[in-house]
Amino acid sequence: MDVYDNNTFNGKDDFPRKILSQLLGSHGPVHAVTYSASPGTYILTGSADRSIRLYNPIPASPSSSTATTTTSSTSFITKPSQPPSTTPPQGRLIQTYTSHGYEVLSLSVSSSNATFASSGGDRAVFLWDVSTATTIRRFSNQGHTTGRINSVIFAGVDDSLLISGGHDTTVRIWDVRSQSSSRPVQVLREAKDGITSLAVSPGGAEVLAGSVDGRVRTYDVRMGRLVTDVFPGAVTSLCLARDGKTVLVGSLDSKIRLMDRSNGQCLRTYGGDGNANGDAAGGWTNKEIRVQSVLGGGERWVVAGDENGAENSNGEGRVWAWDLLTGKLVAKLGVPWGPGGGKVVVGRDGKEKERKNVVSCVAWKDGGFGNQFCVGGTSGVVTVYGEA
């Protein structure tokens, strides 16, 4: 059984371990989470049930839950100091958005918070009006031709552009302001396999695209220049630092790398920490699915989900955090399945098995500079962590 600490790790850090709330309502795994633009009051989630939900993560009142939650359930280097809490408080569901015909895989909120974009299995990019819960535009004419659109992100002055990347190996740039055409204004076709993740540099001059072919391609759309960085495994996650000088790259070789964008040098590698002594056994691995990693705590920490789930009996998931500068493991948090615990499923061998909470998506408030973060995965419940 895993032993991890949501109270202290080596006793000296202020990583947010307290479970503030859980966001319920999804009828399938949650594939995407994001905060609203600064100050990040709200959370959007995208689900396999084809719906997008808007939440206020702060419970309506202390009495909204029957249990008091101070930390998540288990301990990394010491035994739990208190019994596991039963039911964390529930955040407030504000609105549900339903126009997708397939699962929702990516979300991006405009800087004004008036609109957001979504993508998934529909082969179209949806632009939404937040207040009316209706789609303003659907970008699909001469759009992605096959499979899913894995990532979408706003770019340009006043969020005038949307950029999407998908299974068809292309990156497409769309003009949000144009009412006469829904065709992409530019198509980038250099990738040899599906696009998994996108990032945009400060100012919007550069587009970064991570691909299953193990490349991160940086397009300078103004100068027409392309720079390609090669990685040992399929690239599954990109997170650009606020100043644009470094980028966090996750790939399917069980490593997360902090890259210097000026020269392509790897500044630090994260992953593989099995326990407080840094042993590899039981450590962080990512070899099969897209697991998101982000910068948090004012870019002091690297935070990632977990494709394996916790090795215990209640379907719990895990979140890992490392110190950005030293690469040392700061925290390994348990992520409860939600009300009722893990679901029991029947395996191919006909035996009942408990389904694990694979944590695949992570978002940190205020672009990595806020005081809380949230995670989602196979349980369909989003767990929000904050300061004690």
Describe this entry's structure for a reader.
Its main location: cytoplasm. Belongs to the WD repeat MORG1 family. It comes from Neurospora hispaniola. This is WD40-repeat-containing domain protein. The protein is mainly β. The chain is 1% helix and 42% strand. The protein is built from one helix and 30 strands. It has a four-stranded antiparallel sheet with strand order 1-30-29-28.
Q: Which short descriptors sum up this protein?
A:
30 strands; repeat; 42% strand; 1 helix; disordered N terminus; mainly beta
Tally of contiguous helical segments: 1
Widest sheet: strand ordering: 1-30-29-28
What proportion strand?
35-45%
Please state the CA-atom Rg, rounded to the nearest Å: 20 Å
SS-based class: mainly beta
State the distance separating the first and last CA atoms: 26 Å
What is the overall silhouette? globular
Would you tell me the overall average pLDDT?
86
Number of strands: 30
Profile the largest sheet.
Answer: 4 strands, antiparallel
Oligomer: single chain
Unreliable stretches, pLDDT < 50, 5 or more residues? 1-5, 7-11, 63-70, 73-84, 274-281
Percent range of helical residues:
under 10%
Keywords: Cytoplasm, Repeat, WD repeat
GO cellular component, one term: catalytic step 2 spliceosome
Pfam families: WD40
Region (Disordered): 57-90
